[in-house]
Amino acid sequence: MTDKTIYATYDDDMVLLEGAKKLVAKGVHIRDVFSPFPIHGIDPVIGIKQTRLAITAFIYGLIGLGMALGGIYYFMIVDWPMNIGGKPNQTFYENLPAFIPIIFEFTVLIAAHGMALTYFIRNWTLPGVTARNPYEYTTNDKFVMEIHPSDNEMSVEELSNFINETGSIKIEER
Prior knowledge:
The chain has helices at about 15-25, 40-45, 55-80, 90-95, 100-125, 155-165, and strands at about 5-10, 30-35, 145, 170-174. It has 6 helices and 4 strands; from the N terminus they run E-H-E-H-H-H-H-E-H-E. By secondary structure, it is of the alpha+beta class. The radius of gyration is 26 Å and the shape is rod-shaped. The chain folds into 2 domains: about 5-50 and about 130-174, no CATH class; about 55-125, no CATH class.
């Protein structure tokens, strides 16, 4: 086919969603969609799998829980046992109920920071990295659909005709 990319611009998110449904029904593979806000329901239409970020959140939560329990054991039993406010300091299990809020908060802290870092690294949205956004106006008020003719078994003209039927306001090849 060709190594060009077709960008179809839309004014409305629902028009883009309905257009994507029509194109996928005709066998067109849509590579990506750029929009100023998330479009509800576009992921299953264009074939994006559900994220596994919740699994990483659980793993980071377990890491935070382990670090909190280890820290409390080390600080209150091994390093410097002190009787603070009548809290016992002889054994770990006697200290545990008094520090449930600290354990919970530290677990949430590590899980939140871990998820944020994982999100930034996975999507490559780190500081100093240029964004992969074909048009600046997709951050304001327009919606753009990216289609690669090499992904589809159609000519560029056929794809352009199908896209015109979906209500696109502008079609550009790059």
